[in-house]
TrEMBL record:
The keyword Repeat applies. Keywords: CBS domain, Repeat. This is CBS domain-containing protein. Gene3D superfamilies: CBS-domain. The lineage of its organism: Eukaryota, Viridiplantae, Streptophyta, Embryophyta, Tracheophyta. Residues 330-388 form the CBS domain. InterPro entries: AMPK_gamma/SDS23_families (IPR050511), CBS_dom (IPR000644), CBS_dom_sf (IPR046342). It comes from Glycine max.
């Protein structure tokens, strides 16, 4: 029964999913930044390029604000951010093309899981066109106009098939896999001790490589103290809801201060002043001038000079207010989501899905960090379980 269940088409998992927002891979970093900031709800944009071998345009990447932030954190880009934004997206795109894989709607869930376990982080699936109302058609035309450079890739639209989609699907029929769901994650051996971690007092700039890697792995960077006690995280999910000005904070703050800075409540004023002072100390004047942190919604006052680093933007008419660093796209609080080694597999699945994360930190009662459990770990267990049937 379980084998038959997983043989279902992946098109079942794509029902109702929104089409990808698209951009040509030949565009500049500034083009990608504009595309990312044009939506209060989508945190990613797909990148498309012509593939000579297949004689078609294919998706070659998935870009979010974290990619841009990590790119701008390079020292030469901090010195000249405007020049960095004019560079092609090839400066950001990962060299590993296997991270993005095209999948047909008729492909089985088995195939999707195997691709994920082989390292594919983003599955691109065509979605069938549906009849649209006049309003929906206008929205579709606006979407097509925004991505006119790659609209010739196909007559149909595409969507992302994510690890979360697969886990949700499995959870919907979790009884098929009894008794596996009731077993603890510790007994299943799916807690990974190979975590990305940084000391609370370390410079946030030293975590840039780990942040970029965690984005690729769809995990996060743990913040720990000298005793290995888990304090919090620097999450790509949270950073993806910020904007490019966070590069200034990463270049000047400690890892612990950065956690407070990117919290969805907004950066504390003392940290804002500290960022400004340290940018001056490090002679990052262009960063200070070109990437300012905007004033608070309450004050509604514009920036008084190029060197001011206030905290928020005025509310936008007719839509949710979006600050420079804290967007309406934020859907959960910034604190880390944790579980215990004795938590059951199904409990961890439900907890992760409820908080819209692909992983949970595993800690002991004394808050010492044990490791991390990911959707990929869970999928491996389900796949191995099926092989024993």
């Amino acid at each position: 029964m379980a084998v038959s269940f997983l043989a279902r088409d992946v098109s079942d998992l794509c029902l109702g999913k929104p089409p990808l927002r698209s951009l040509s891979a030949a565009a500049t970093v500034a083009d990608a930044l504009a595309a990312l900031k044009s939506s209060d709800h989508e945190t990613h944009v797909s990148l498309w390029s012509f593939c000579e071998n297949k004689n078609e345009v294919r998706c070659v990447g998935k870009l979010c604000m974290v990619d841009v932030i990590c790119y701008l954190c390079r020292e030469d880009n901090l010195l000249s951010p405007s020049k960095a934004l004019k560079e092609p997206l090839s400066s950001i795109l990962p060299k590993d093309q296997s991270l993005v894989v095209h999948l047909q709607p008729s492909s089985s869930l088995f195939e999707a899981i195997d691709l994920i376990l082989q390292g594919a982080q983003n599955l691109v699936v065509p979605i069938l066109p549906t009849k649209r109302s006049g309003v929906s058609r206008r929205k579709q035309q606006q979407h097509q106009k925004a991505s006119s450079t790659i609209n010739s890739h196909s007559s149909c639209e595409f969507c992302w098939l994510t690890q979360e989609d697969v886990i949700r699907f499995l959870l919907g029929s979790i009884g098929v896999f009894t008794p596996l769901p009731a077993l603890s994650i510790d007994s299943l051996g799916i807690i990974s001790s190979d975590v990305l971690a940084i000391d609370y007092y370390s410079p946030a700039s030293s975590a840039v490589g780990a942040i970029s890697k965690s984005l690729t792995q769809q995990t996060s960077v743990a913040i720990v103290d000298s005793d290995g006690t888990f304090i919090g995280e620097i999450s790509p999910f949270t950073l993806a809801c910020c904007d490019e000005t966070v590069a200034a904070a990463i270049a000047t703050l400690s890892a612990g201060d950065l956690m407070a800075y990117i919290d969805c409540g907004g950066p504390p004023e003392d940290l804002v002043r500290l960022v400004k002072a340290r940018l001056k100390e490090k002679n990052f004047e262009k960063m200070l001038q070109e990437f300012t942190i905007l004033s608070s919604c309450e004050s509604s006052q514009s920036t008084s000079s190029d060197e001011e680093l206030p905290t928020r933007t005025p509310a936008r008419s007719g839509r949710l207010a979006r600050s420079s660093s804290y967007s309406a796209r934020m859907v959960r609080k910034a604190e880390a989501i944790v579980c215990h080694p004795k938590s059951s597999l199904v409990a961890v699945m439900i907890q992760a899905i409820a908080h819209r994360v692909n992983y949970l930190w595993v800690i002991e009662d004394d808050c010492s960090l044990v490791g991390i459990v990911t959707f990929s770990n869970m999928l491996k267990v389900f796949r191995e379980h099926l092989e024993t049937i």
